[in-house]
């Protein structure tokens, strides 16, 4: 197994307009990026909290109202967006990774600006940006949630290169985890009254 370099910022920026992503032809640049990513200490994610733990917003899911609103706006299943947030930040709006990704949806600063997000620690803005990006990826990959999640984690170029989930350990763990959380949120919302509208592609 190989580990993917953390290239989320460039991958997200190139995907804003969703054009075909071109991989860098310079092995030196790749090697340097990989070395830098491995050398940078990644902050530990917050201690896991139950997914029904009371947090801002009404309903059984943290930030539920904001998640549902952002998801509907960009044609995303709210449960899928919630699954991404659970995996990315564990619903901590102040989460920050060792490479600088911030907020509920873990946006890099340059990427956040491109998505119209001025403050990644603002839950509403972070969810808007993450939903916008995820919705674009779902359209690009014709509603395939697994491929959209691969692209969210490793960049659309990885999907194009390998024709599916790439042989990156992080991404291979990421996709089933998010889908597992998504299934949990769908069950939680299905049992809630009223349940949020689930919009799927």
Give the proportion of residues in helices. Answer: 40-55%
Q: The CATH topology, please?
A: Lysozyme
CATH domain class name: Mainly Alpha
Give the biggest beta sheet. Answer: none
Per DSSP E runs of 2 or more residues, the count of β-strands stands at: 0
Radius of gyration (CA) equals 16 Å
Number of folding domains? 1
Low-confidence stretches: 9-35, 37-55
Output the helix-strand order: HHHHHHHHH
Per DSSP, what share of the residues sits in E-state strands of 2 or more residues? under 5%
3D structure, described in words:
With 201 residues, the chain is an all-alpha fold. The chain has a single domain, classed as Orthogonal Bundle (Lysozyme). It is 53% helix and 0% strand. It contains 9 helices and no strands. It has helices at residues 8-15, 27-39, 64-73, 78-89, 109-114, 123-140, 145-154, 156-162, 169-191. α4 (78-89) packs across α9 (169-191). It is globular and about 40 Å long. It starts with 7 loop residues before the first helix and ends in a 10-residue tail after the last helix.
Using brief descriptors, characterize the structure shown.
mainly alpha, 201 residues, Lysozyme
Task: Give the gist of this structure.
This protein is mainly alpha-helical. It has helices at 8-15, 27-39, 64-73, 78-89, 109-114, 123-140, 145-154, 156-162, 169-191. The chain is globular and about 40 Å long.
């Amino acid at each position: 197994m190989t580990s993917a370099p953390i290239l989320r910022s460039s991958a997200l920026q190139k995907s804003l307009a969703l054009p075909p992503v071109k991989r860098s032809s310079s092995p030196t640049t790749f090697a340097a990026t990989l070395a830098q990513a491995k050398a940078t200490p990644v902050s530990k994610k917050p201690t896991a909290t139950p997914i029904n733990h009371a947090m801002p917003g009404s309903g059984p899911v943290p930030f539920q109202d904001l998640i549902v609103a952002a998801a509907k706006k960009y044609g995303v299943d709210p449960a899928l967006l919630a699954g991404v947030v659970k995996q990315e930040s564990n619903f901590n709006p102040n989460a920050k990774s060792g490479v600088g990704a911030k907020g509920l949806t873990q946006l890099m600063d340059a990427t956040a600006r491109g998505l119209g997000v001025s403050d990644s620690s603002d839950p509403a803005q972070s969810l808007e940006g993450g939903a916008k990006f995820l919705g674009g990826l779902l359209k690009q990959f014709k509603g395939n949630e697994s491929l959209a999640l691969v692209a969210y984690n490793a960049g659309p170029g990885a999907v194009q290169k390998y024709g599916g989930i790439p042989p990156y350990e992080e991404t291979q763990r990421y996709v089933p985890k998010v889908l597992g959380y998504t299934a949990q949120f769908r069950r939680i919302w299905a049992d809630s009254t009223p349940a949020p509208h689930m919009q799927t592609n």
